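Thread amino acids onto this structure.
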């Protein structure tokens, strides 16, 4: 008679589990996303982030798998401690290897943010579609993605919105497979649910975002990068720009 499949063996062969710790520092030149029209100068501050990630991959077939992630995180600001935050995040994605080096995927996630003073607590849900191509002779990876997001802002529903985000990343190794760079560009459209007090129409934002990262992987994964955002609103006085300088260290898996 055929042997029964051991549950322990099933877990080891078909599921991969690991946990990682991410530590990062960041400089933000516009902590509160102060609008260009405001008379006060944007607040600049440094912050620290810590995230505990639990990641899993379930192999349905050789070409199909489901990825899932739970993240518990915290942000701590140096001066603006009202922005200190606890974050819970859950994500599930499915991916299929279409052809060698071509991968198509889709999935969704939910994120809950609890801020120290409660003024900016929210829940966010998203659905995403992505395509990835690897050109192995040049160690080049091209990633296209599109995401729909619904954002529910607890304190004031006039700040709740629907958002479409679409763009690409290009990654390439530099000199060695331990060092690689990533260039990204994304567009966002945000459509707010209700009118803000004092305005005759609902707010619609159109945002450009560019990013550049360098990653080094040996014992730990280290990343430095810069992200620039230019947000243009149909309500001109609610437009703003910001840039962030980021430094991250991702501890190698300590649970497997």
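Threaded sequence (256 positions):
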């Amino acid at each position: 008679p055929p042997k029964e499949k051991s549950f322990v063996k099933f877990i080891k062969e078909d599921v991969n589990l690991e946990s990682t710790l991410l530590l990062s520092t960041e400089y933000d030149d516009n902590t509160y996303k102060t609008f260009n029209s405001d008379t006060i100068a944007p607040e600049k501050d440094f912050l620290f982030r810590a995230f505990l990630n639990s990641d899993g991959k379930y192999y349905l077939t050789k070409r199909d798998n489901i990825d899932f992630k739970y993240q518990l995180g915290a942000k701590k600001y140096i001066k603006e401690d009202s922005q200190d935050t606890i974050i819970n995040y859950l994500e599930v994605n499915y991916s299929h290897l279409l052809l060698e080096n071509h991968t198509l995927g889709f999935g969704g996630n939910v994120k809950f943010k609890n801020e120290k003073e409660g003024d900016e607590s929210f829940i966010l849900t998203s659905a995403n579609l992505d395509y990835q191509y690897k050109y192995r002779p040049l160690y080049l990876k091209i990633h296209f993605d599109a995401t729909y997001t619904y954002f529910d802002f607890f304190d004031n529903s006039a700040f709740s919105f629907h958002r479409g985000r679409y763009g690409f990343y290009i990654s390439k190794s530099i000199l060695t497979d331990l060092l690689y760079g990533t260039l990204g560009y994304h567009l966002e459209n945000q459509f707010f649910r209700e009118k803000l007090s004092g305005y005759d129409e609902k707010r619609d934002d159109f945002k450009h975002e560019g990013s550049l990262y360098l990653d080094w992987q040996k014992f730990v994964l280290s990343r430095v990068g810069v992200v620039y955002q230019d947000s243009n609103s149909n309500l001109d006085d609610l437009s703003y720009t910001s840039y962030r300088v980021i430094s991250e260290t991702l501890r190698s898996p300590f649970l497997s």
